[in-house]
Specification:
The complex is a heterodimer.
Chain A (H helix, E strand, L loop, with lengths): L4 E3 L2 E4 L5 E6 L6 E8 L3 E9 L2 E5 L6 E5 L5 E5 L8 E8 L8 E2 L3 E5 L1
Parallel strand pairs in A: 2-11
Antiparallel strand pairs in A: 1-3, 3-8, 4-5, 4-9, 5-6, 7-8, 9-10, 9-11
Chain B lengths: L3 E2 L4 E5 L4 E7 L6 E7 L6 E7 L4 E4 L2 E6 L4 E6 L8 E8 L7 E3 L3 E6 L1
Parallel strand pairs in B: 2-11
Antiparallel strand pairs in B: 1-3, 3-8, 4-5, 4-9, 6-7, 7-8, 9-10, 9-11
Classes of the chains: A mainly beta, B mainly beta.
Chain lengths: ~110, ~110
């Protein structure tokens, strides 16, 4: 079974721009969660999608949004980029979200200049 | 408010000795705990988990201990190997609630040969 894939792996943007990141979960997994990893902050939960609906949301501003498609693929969008948005963005999938193991993708490294 | 805390950002251990990584949590609703290992340029991989109905779970060289009264869990690696050098994250969730995982900030383990 193929693992979780994320594209692109690396991205450089400038302040004020917007960016869209993509995540393809493991086949059959319906839950996709997004995390932001920055040094000293660990993994901070952004949101979780299940069956095309946002089921959970972390404490991030509205500039961070996401969606999930019928094939469970998910996209995350960040608008009006700020320098502080530079981070590793990780996507994780699980079968239902209620099961207790998430499988992570390799992440997208976003640099905002 | 950091609900899951890993107070040691780094730890160095000699090969063959025991590595003990600690994690504290504040939310008494958490009832499932996980440890993830992360190598550079890769997403976190699931290592071991424990439900709040247990106080110990063992998987090969890895054992997780849970002390609910102290809201503390620890990961023991015995014997430590150079390949164990990675960043370790603990995570907690309230499975009856929002299926949201809260991660700690991570501990970088270095196993010296």
């Amino acid at each position: 079974k193929a693992g979780v894939t994320q594209t692109p792996r690396y991205l450089i943007k400038t302040r004020g721009q917007q960016v869209t990141l993509s995540c393809s979960p493991i086949s059959g997994h319906r839950s996709v969660s997004w995390y932001q990893q920055t040094p000293g902050q660990g993994l901070q939960f952004l949101f979780e999608y299940f069956s095309e609906t946002q089921r959970n949301k972390g404490n991030f501003p509205g500039r961070f949004s996401g969606r999930q498609f019928s094939n469970s693929r998910s996209e995350m969008n960040v608008s009006t980029l700020e320098l502080g948005d530079s981070a590793l963005y990780l996507c994780a999938s699980s079968f239902q979200g209620t099961d207790n193991e998430q499988f992570f993708g390799p992440g997208t490294r976003l640099t905002v200049l | 408010d950091q609900q899951v805390k890993q107070n040691s950002p780094s730890l160095s251990v000699q090969e063959g000795r025991i590595s003990i990584l600690n994690c504290d949590y504040t939310n008494s609703m958490f009832d499932y705990f996980l440890w993830y290992k992360k190598y550079p340029a890769e997403g976190p991989t699931f290592l071991i988990s424990i439900s709040s109905i247990k106080d110990k779970n063992e998987d090969g060289r890895f054992t997780v201990f849970l002390n609910k009264s102290a809201k503390h869990l620890s990961l023991h690696i015995v014997p430590s190997q150079p390949g164990d050098s990675a960043v370790y994250f603990c995570a907690a969730s309230a499975t009856s609630g929002t299926y949201k995982y809260i991660f700690g900030t991570g501990t970088r383990l270095k196993v010296l040969a």
